[in-house]
Specification:
single chain; mainly alpha; globular
Length: about 100
């Protein structure tokens, strides 16, 4: 029997652990976004986030630090959402990650 809540919980755990990166700066951007915004995203943006976290840390760092933007429109859109969230939200309690 396939339990939807178990599948959702497993997906959430996977997303959380894939959002934990080798760089503290990325953790401070991705984890709060996942915890505070992901559930409210439409399916297209949730898919874009899931694809984004499979990228290499150095690419994510360049994009999320606004040094450059991804060329692909869907990826650029989710990166801008994450950056905007970080700039407009008080995430001090995540500094101990």
């Amino acid at each position: 029997m396939n339990d939807d809540s178990s599948a959702a919980a497993a997906l959430r755990k996977r997303l959380y652990w894939h959002s934990r990166r080798g760089m503290w700066e990325l953790d401070l951007l991705l984890i709060p976004f996942l915890e505070q915004r992901y559930d409210d995203l439409d399916e297209r943006d949730q898919t874009a986030y899931r694809i984004l976290i499979d990228e290499e840390d150095q690419d994510l760092f360049a994009w999320l630090m606004r040094r450059e933007w991804p060329e692909e429109p869907e990826r650029r859109r989710i990166v801008k959402m994450i950056v905007e969230h970080a700039e407009t939200t008080d995430n001090d309690h995540y500094r101990t990650l």
